[in-house]
């Protein structure tokens, strides 16, 4: 093959077209698909990074092609499965290939990089690489490198004399430790010491040490620090002189692993039935999707672990996706304790370097079990035996930026390649998945009770229209506060949910009714008392809390709508002795913040955990016997056809946090809509009835899962431009649709202006539109990049959010 078709990273003019480059002869066996290259692009010939997509014998431009300037990888970073996955992803999500390819890789392999070499054994004096590598044992490889030297590097790497690492900064440097081994006999070291010059203090120290322990092997650095004079240079010198052998060993930066022992449980009959079905599919190599619908605490995770163990037992690998927020140390330790040494963990809390190291462990086959959040769907596992997605209804599985993929679709696609089952698990499956199970496309497996006769919590609804409130605290019913008090007295724990962060929702003038809004967005500012500021939750704008109304200068301004900060303060006033932890975006934004709060609560160092929906998942604490929902109506009032589904899911999940062990759990839901079906059915933990009822409403309204949806959104700095463009798109698209397709809009988005950009949108509802997807592909290629003229276009297939 002499021509490489390269997908190039050219931000200004996106296209999915590969560009042809000549492969220099010396690079022929290295320049293969999936390898990253640098190629000259544009008239200036600046080097750009790209991926070899295909190699071919001939190009229509043959003879006029520029050669590849550099090869960045000695082995492909993406194998053929991943390359075809990228191809599918680009089409399926209306994305650029380059963004798909980059999404699949850890960021350390995406951005600007440096190549660093580490020599495991010194080079021979006549080695051609001596001219290139200017240091004894490690250093940067220059950007410009002759192909013959590259081939030499590759030879040495294969012989394990040298290793190459890519880094974007110091942080992604491979972590290495030098191992030194004595290779001479004690007497020989003695003799060398005798010959050493008297002023060679360091050498003498080293030789003294070696004569005492000639077969020393290990990390000399601890020893070096005890003898400060002994420098790395002395050691290197000793290696050169043949007194010592040195060898670099890679140390992986591993996320902390803990000590939770999670013994394998004897499965209940229901669990066993689910397990049998799943391992049957693993064994038969069936590409079957299972929907494991199991009430909270019914032991779904136990089924996943056993099924993964089975896949491993067959010599295969296993992938388990969980929502970011459930990736708690508790959860990770549970997996690690079942598969010691085999687990790689991928989540956004890792540093760039940690993430890269985990990726490498998977890629090299050293980790055969992967647990991770959304992007772990692209983990470079091969020979996959099972793929699991826990809490499959979670919105965080959908990526909000290009490529706008849903991890569920990605693992189902990969499962086709590996002929393996996919298990989607939830106590509250998404309507889409549950409907597919209804149709028989997924196989439904049910866990209806908790093991060991542990009871589901009892749920009570508190009607806030009538309930007595704590005086001066309109958000807290006496009933809920009494329950909290009982828990405090019994030394049990309470979890309180309030789905609104900050201190107050908005600030309003009582004289003129003016609400203080963000200058950049069409949204009111939220009061944050801790930082004495009003904050915009959309663009991050902050301003001081005013003491008079900006419109009428009245001093009669007040805050409305309690957020987590205010409720925390109120509960503290009621129970001055209670230890309260608050968990929301503001208290968890620093690295590890979320985990710290959970661990603290888990050690029972607090009595009350108050937080936004992030408390609803993954927590499993035996001392929690009360769950209170301060305001169940927040999520109900969203103008979104999924508002009821989200409310039902949230209430069911948060209720599931109560009474996970022997002690009975109780739940109190405060609401102004006590008769709403989503709240009623969540209180009864009755998913099936909710599903039936909600499906009827979706059918009447023509919503998913009865229709597919696509959201087309345009934004621009000038409102009239955005409006014009979206009408133009509509006029162009309409003739390509069948009469059955429903086009909603153009309409302004609910929050029309964010960060001074105006958003207008179209929603297409359809069942079968053979021409639609190709038309949208054309649209995105046309409107993105160079010719975009300040417009941004977003095409979101099966969007989870319409705002
Ligand atoms: P889920 O994933 O459905 O929320 P888990 O797998 O976390 O449920 O199980 C909830 C609790 O029940 C855990 O503490 C787990 O150890 C325990 N458990 C699960 N299966 C069994 C079983 N078969 N026998 C005893 N305890 C079990
Ligand atoms: Zn006013
Ligand atoms: Zn704003």
UniProtKB/TrEMBL annotation:
Binds 2 zinc ions per subunit. Keywords: ATP-binding, DNA replication, DNA-binding, Helicase, Hydrolase, Isomerase, Metal-binding, Nucleotide-binding, Primosome, Zinc. Residues 544-698 form the Helicase C-terminal domain. Initiates the restart of stalled replication forks, which reloads the replicative helicase on sites other than the origin of replication. Recognizes and binds to abandoned replication forks and remodels them to uncover a helicase loading site. Promotes assembly of the primosome at these replication forks. This is Replication restart protein PriA. Belongs to the helicase family. PriA subfamily. Residues 281-447 form the Helicase ATP-binding domain. PROSITE patterns: HELICASE_ATP_BIND_1, HELICASE_CTER. Its EC number is 5.6.2.4. Zn(2+) 1 binds at residues 509, 512, 549, 552. One of its GO terms (molecular function) is hydrolase activity. It comes from Lapidilactobacillus mulanensis. It catalyses: ATP + H2O = ADP + phosphate + H(+); Couples ATP hydrolysis with the unwinding of duplex DNA by translocating in the 3'-5' direction. Component of the replication restart primosome. Its cofactor is Zn(2+). Zn(2+) 2 binds at residues 518, 521, 536, 539. The keyword Metal-binding applies.
